[in-house]
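User: I'll paste a sequence; please echo it back and then give the predicted structure.

Assistant: Echoing your sequence first, then the prediction.
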Amino acid sequence: MRRYFHPDPEDICLPEVLFALSDATRLGIAVDLSDGGERTAGELGGDIAKSTMTHHLKILREAGVLRVRSEGTRCYNSLRLADLESRFPGLVDQLLSSAARCGYTSADARR
C-alpha cells in the first residue's frame, strides 16, 4: 500500500492553501469534495489527463487541503475540512461556497 505525505494540522500554512486553491481545476476539485465525501481521481477527473489530475491532487495534498486514503489499488481523496477550519476559521468554507456559487467543479473548471 502506498503511503502519502500529509502535513500535520499545525504545519498547514495559509500561503500554501491559497496557492493550492488559486488554480481553477484545483478549486473545482475542492468544491466537489466539500460535501464531505471521498472520491477517486477518476471520479474527479472528467476529461482531465491522468498525469494532470495526479499533479493537481499532489499540490492539494501537500498543501494540507486533501487527505488521501489507500484501499487496495484505489486512492480515495477527501477534504481536510476539520483541520482547515481549526487553522483558518471560516476561510475555506467561504472560499468553497463562493466558488460553488460561481459554478466551479473539477470536471469543467477550465477558466
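The two ends are 35 Å apart (CA to CA). The chain has a mean pLDDT of 91.
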